[in-house]
Design brief:
This protein has one domain. Strand 9 (about 110-115) and strand 10 (about 120-125) form a beta hairpin. With about 170 residues, the protein is α+β, with helices and mostly antiparallel strands. The strands form three sheets. Strands 3-4-5-6-12-11-10-9 form an eight-stranded antiparallel beta sheet. It contains four helices and twelve strands, in the order H-E-E-H-E-E-E-E-E-H-E-H-E-E-E-E. The chain has helices at about 5-15, 25-30, 80-85, 95-105, and strands at about 15, 20, 35-40, 50-55, 55-60, 65-70, 75-80, 90, 110-115, 120-125, 135, 145-150.
């Protein structure tokens, strides 16, 4: 599977194998194994936490549900779990805007420009089916290059009780 196919399918379905917004964390770790624990999203609390499987980054709520998903594409290569994408799990980075748009169109995934970006050296698009966001860096005199692709959270209000260990 090619990286553009992976991203387009993810943008169309809101899923990457067992990973989706609202997925139970134990199901994800059972399928993908132990992730790298990047740390907390806040200095004052243990949860939510950020975990990674290569360049697939997941924010996990204290109720142990996946709350945000992104794939970092700004590095030299993009590494994703082999069990989901097959092959070596390693893909070339440097994905250009026209190639991403073409892959979305080929997958039948409608999209629109996403104008509210505060930075002048970036542009973004959002897919209609899932609200996936593709953010591009705009190098001088070049096509925009994909920096990150992310799926929005499910907007849940955490039902887990706050305990002393969650702080």
């Amino acid at each position: 599977m090619e990286i553009l196919d992976v991203l387009a399918n993810m943008a169309k379905t809101g899923r990457l194998g067992p990973v989706f917004s609202g997925a139970d964390w134990s199901d994800v770790t059972t399928a993908l194994g132990k992730p790298r624990d990047i740390g907390t999203m806040s200095r004052n609390r243990k949860w939510p936490r950020l975990f990674a499987y290569g360049d697939l980054e997941l924010s996990v709520c204290r109720c142990r549900k996946v709350s945000l998903i992104c794939i970092q594409t700004w590095r030299d290569v993009v590494e994703l779990p082999v069990s989901i994408v097959g092959g070596t799990g390693t893909f070339p980075a440097g994905l250009k805007h026209p190639d991403v748009v073409s892959a979305l169109d080929k997958a039948g995934c409608s999209w629109a420009p996403y104008p509210p970006l505060p930075l002048g050296d970036q542009c973004s698009l959002v897919t209609i089916p899932t609200g996936a966001n593709f953010t591009f860096e705009i190098p001088e005199d070049e096509d925009p290059v994909l920096n990150v692709m992310g799926l929005p959270g499910d907007g849940h209000t955490c039902s887990a009780r706050t305990t002393g260990q969650d702080h």
